[in-house]
Amino acid sequence: MHALFDEWMALAARLGRVCMTGGCVIAGAESCTGGLIAAAITSVGGSSAWFDGACVTYSNEAKQSLLGVSASTLATHGAVSVETAAEMALGALHRSGGRATLAYAVTGIAGPGGGSRDKPVGTVCFGFAQASAPSPQLVTRRLHLPGDRSAVREQSVNVVLSELLRRAEPRTR
């Protein structure tokens, strides 16, 4: 895990440089990763300049009370869905009070139990919300990540850090 955390720190450090250059501030919402993404980001000195914070919302109640995920979304689609990931990302962006320009969300079934035929262990949903007028841009993804609980969580961290880096990089016109 030490070598893996070093890899995450390197990605996070690169993300920080890009955010500092482009004025990007990140907020997050994590479920199955339990704060691993925020831990990687905050391992970078000075990250408070470009990282607003993250909520670890493991229960449905926390997703609702801390991020504003609707009870109807949870009842209709479940905690592990692109719909929930979207609302989590938008909630993280909104809860930053206008400071964050980019938010991430991750929710999934890391295992070993909890899977179903429609959502087997390894199902992970991601949401990314980017502040823009008149309303945030939103992108979601659903992936099936192979391996045991640790592998699913580790791959989820890689997906989020890589996607944040891609989204924070300035676009050429």
How are the SSEs placed, and which strands pair?
Elements: H1 2-22, E1 26-30, H2 36-42, E2 51-56, H3 60-67, H4 71-77, H5 82-95, E3 102-108, E4 123-130, E5 137-144, H6 149-168
Helix pairs in contact: 1-2, 1-6
Short description:
With 173 residues, the chain is an alpha/beta fold. The chain is built from 6 helices and 5 strands; from the N terminus they run αβαβαααβββα.
Account of the protein in words:
Helix content is 45%, strand content 20%. The mean pLDDT is 95. It is globular, with a radius of gyration of 15 Å. Helix 1 packs parallel to helix 6. It is built from 6 helices and 5 strands; from the N terminus they run αβαβαααβββα. A 5-stranded mixed beta sheet has the order 2-1-3-4-5, with helices on both faces. The protein starts with a helix and ends in a 5-residue tail after the last helix. With 173 residues, the protein is an alpha/beta fold.
